[in-house]
Amino acid sequence: MEENRFPTKLLTVLILSLTFNVVFIATQVLKAWEKKELMTTVQLVDPVIDARKERGNGGEILKQFFSMSYDQLRQELNRTEHVESGFRRQDLALGLLTQFHYFPIDRVLVQSDLQKREIFFDNQGGERIGLHLFSGLKPFHFDAVRHFFESETWPFSTEGLIFELKRQGEKAPESLKKALFATGEFQRLQKVFEASKVVMEPETILSVLLLSDDCDLNSIRSLKTLLRPLLEKRSKNVASLYFWVEPDLISLTDTEVLDLLDVVSLEQSWVQEGVKKLTLSPRSDEVRQKAIKCFETTLAQEPARLTETKKIFHRVEPKETLWQIARRYGVSVEEIAQLNHLSQGQVLSVGKELEIPPSSTRSIPPG
Predict the structure, then answer these.
(1) What does CATH list as the number for 312-356?
(2) Domain map (residue ranges) of the chain
(3) pTM higher than 0.85, yes or no?
(4) What is 260-306 written as a DSSP string?
(5) What is the pLDDT of residues 260-276, one digit of tens each?
């Protein structure tokens, strides 16, 4: 028995040693692989950051640029001093203007000219910022950028125009609104309204749009998808429009319907019809009673409202025809012509105010 004990101990020691070495080697290989993977990722995503960390030069410049105002960055567009890795001061300024100040670079430069690169830096607060820069831009590219700034009153993307309208609120000038109305994204939104048989003045569409926290107009596929998240804003226009696109309110909870009834006005016929359906719906007693109360309040106010005659006027825009105006308000050309003493085919004077006749047959939500 004694003769077999030594070889057994030796074998055990050898197995433990071999196991330890295998684990140690595997650990070192894994660490080396992770380090290589990290270096490869850094090189692919950020070809500038390694050198910047070594010297501490570019990082400080980016921090300086990041703290510049909008006007200061515009001035930097004229500066061609090289910073590093082929980028100039004007390149940094253009990247920051595009990413953080809503400059519409896609509208100014051809897509094929844009070689986008992403670099990272830490701002003054230590937050890591990813910045997109554009490589290889020539002097004529920056000439186009500067010309755009000089020729446009509001040189912003559609998202930037909406942001500026929200920021300025009621003080927003008409030129800012018209700049948004002229964008392809806003005109597409108008078509979304028209697809639901809703023709509204741009100003009214804008009042609904400004309630939204999501400014990506290209993501809006239907009027219902735009309105659904806005119900919590408790807007009279939104409530009225929602009754138009979903008269039975089938997708809403009882709580949402109660909130809707708090703000909706029964001036429109489709709203009255929708509220009337609620009084007979299988919803809770609370919803049905509130719908009945809305009807009673409206009926009590009806005689007073009938005595009021609210006149609607329209200011003629350039190249606008009587037919276009009539279609917008849901009335006939003859009604407008007769009320305003116009002859058939008469050319309208730009700026002339036309009175719009009331129409009981209007089938679209008023703007």
Answers:
(1) 3.10.350.10
(2) 53-152, 155-221, 223-308, 312-356
(3) no
(4) HHHH--TTSHHHHHHHHHHHTSSS-HHHHHHHHHHHHHHHHHHHHHH
(5) 999 988 888 888 889 98
